[in-house]
Write a structure and sequence with these properties.
The protein contains two helices and six strands. The chain is mainly beta. 30% of the residues are buried. One of its GO terms (biological process) is fatty acid metabolic process.
């Protein structure tokens, strides 16, 4: 899967305050469908990796299925959105999804642990380009899906201006 990153984009270095590799990231918001501990949520767990990467695990549950016994494609895309969004730990600025493309390579069965690796591949101003891979059952398992995304860095006030807390 190719990602069109402009030639003027550079691959940034991690922010000096990025936690060390191996650090498990807490939920960025306890009410998050992706990483929070909500009933019916995804309960993804992300770990800081080397080289502008984050690894995320997702145990596919029965309530995540679309077709019988298979994860819903939108849930897999949501897992990528969360994993790719966790990359903000490397630039220490809030960012939101501007574009997300997912290519499905094989079915994701209910009960499997999906291993996602997300990486920052370039940045120009507010734009951050990322890629991801999802593998079945192990970090080196069969490739289930790939993703590319563009995130936009936003001011912290973005969430107060556009969201509500309930």
């Amino acid at each position: 899967m190719t990602l069109s990153v402009p030639g003027s984009a550079v691959r940034p270095a991690s922010h000096p305050d990025t936690p060390p590799p191996g650090t498990v990231l807490p939920a960025h918001y306890e009410g998050c469908f992706g990483c929070g501990d909500l009933e019916g949520g995804m309960r993804l767990r992300s770990t800081v990796g080397d080289d502008l990467a984050v690894t995320t695990t997702f145990v596919v549950q029965r309530h995540h299925q679309g077709a019988p016994g298979i994860a819903h494609g939108g849930v897999v895309a949501a897992a990528f959105d969360e994993a790719l969004g966790a990359l903000a730990v490397h630039h220490r600025e809030p960012a939101v999804t501007a574009s997300l493309q997912t290519q499905f390579r094989r079915p994701v069965p209910v009960g499997v642990t999906l291993y996602l690796v997300a990486r920052i591949v370039g940045r120009e101003g507010r734009k951050v380009w990322c890629t991801g891979e999802a593998r079945l059952g192990a970090p080196d398992g069969p490739l289930a899906a790939e993703a590319t995304a563009l995130f936009l860095v936003v001011p912290a006030t973005h969430f107060a201006e556009h969201g509500t807390l309930e």
